[in-house]
């Protein structure tokens, strides 16, 4: 992520691309050796939802964050404040079962930060529309070009 870039509070989508496995863990590894705390790009975890307060994880070099992914794992990335790019290696881990029994299929779902009332309402509509499309088109409307495809032997 470069200067000014961020990720609004969101839930990662619940499944792999074929909807066969649940996302259960996300590992984030920060790799910028000279990154200072005031440079931004920090991870926000919202364990009590967006009405609570976030827990901020500073994006420090050599830090590994292991985050559960389920329908309550709201998180965000604060804006990068400097004219440099922050680099983070992210890996998802999948399971045949969700982490929590009550979890249901969902697309990536964005919200506004608590002070962004109008943006939040627009993003709710966006998520509802995308969920509706996903019910019609189980595999999505277009193929994601960023998905690893294992070669058939």
Can you put this structure into words, describing what you see?
With 153 residues, the protein is α+β, with helices and mostly antiparallel strands. The protein has one domain. 13% of the residues lie in helices and 26% in strands. It contains 1 helix and 8 strands. It has one helix at residues 117-136; strands spanning 7-11, 22-30, 43-46, 55-57, 64-68, 74-77, 88-95, 109-110. The strands form 2 sheets. It has a 5-stranded antiparallel β-sheet. Strand 3 and strand 4 form a beta hairpin. The longest helix is centred in the C-terminal third of the chain and has 20 residues, at 117-136. The model has no long low-confidence stretch (mean pLDDT 91).
Short description, anyone?
This protein has one helix at residues 117-136, and strands at 7-11, 22-30, 43-46, 55-57, 64-68, 74-77, 88-95, 109-110.
